[in-house]
Amino acid sequence: MSLRRCLALCLFTAGGAGAWCAHAQTDLRRLESAYIFNFTQFTQWPADRMGNAELRVCASARSPLREALAALNGRAVGARVWRFTSLADRPLADCDVLAIAGNDGTSGEIRNAFASDDALLIIAGVGAITHGEAVIALVAEDDHLRFEINNGEATRRKLVLSSKLLRLARRLK
Question: Which UniProt keywords apply (predicted)?
Answer without folding.
Answer: Signal
